[in-house]
Amino acid sequence: MAHYMNSAMNQYRQTGIAAATVETDPVKLIEMLLGGAIDRLAYARGAMLRQEREAKHHYLTSAMSIIEHLRLVLDVDAGGDIARNLRRLYDYMLGRLPAANLADDPAAVDEVIGLLREIKIGWDVITARARAH
C-alpha cells in the first residue's frame, strides 16, 4: 500500500494537480486523479478547437499519463471482473486519445471524457456509501 500511495502521489504531482492539497487517503487520491484527467481532456479539447497544437499535446499527454497510472494501479486479484473491465476501458481510452490527437477529433476526446465521468460518478457513489457506513 505504501508503494501505491507514493506512486499515486508522484503521479499526482507530475501531472500538476495542486499537489499541496494531496491527502494520503487512496480513495481521495483516485477521485482527484479522475477529476484531473477529465479537466486535462477538457483543456485539450479547447486547445484542439483553437488549433493550439502545443497546448493540445501537453494536455492530452498529461491526461494519458493519469489514465495510464489509474490502469497500472488496478488490483485485478482483489477487484476481479470490475478491475479487469476497468483495465480494458482504460486501454481503450489510451488507444483513442492518440488517434484523437492525430485527427484533431474533439468528438473522440468527448467520448473519453464521458467514459471517465461515468467511472468517476460510480467511484463517488461507492465511496459515499462506504463513508456513510
Question: Can you give a write-up of this model?
Answer:
The protein is mainly alpha-helical. The protein has helices at residues 2-14, 26-49, 53-72, 76-103, 106-132. α1 packs parallel to α2, α2 runs antiparallel to α3 (53-72) and α2 runs antiparallel to α5 (106-132). The chain is elongated. The two termini are 23 Å apart. The model has no long low-confidence stretch (mean pLDDT 87).
Q: Kindly provide the radius of gyration, computed on alpha-carbon positions and rounded to a whole number of angstroms.
A: 15 Å
Structural class: mainly alpha
Average of pLDDT: 87
The sequence of SSEs as H and E is: HHHHH
Shape: elongated
Distance between the termini: 23 Å
Tally of separate helices = 5
Helix percent band: over 70%
Beta fraction = under 5%
Number of strands: 0
Unreliable stretches, pLDDT < 50, 5 or more residues? none
Largest sheet: none
Main features:
about 130 residues, mainly alpha, about 85% helix, elongated
Provide the fold topology.
Elements lengths: L1 H13 L11 H24 L3 H20 L3 H28 L2 H27 L1
Summarize the structure in short.
With 133 residues, the protein is mainly alpha-helical. 84% of the residues lie in helices and 0% in strands. The protein starts with a helix and ends with a helix.
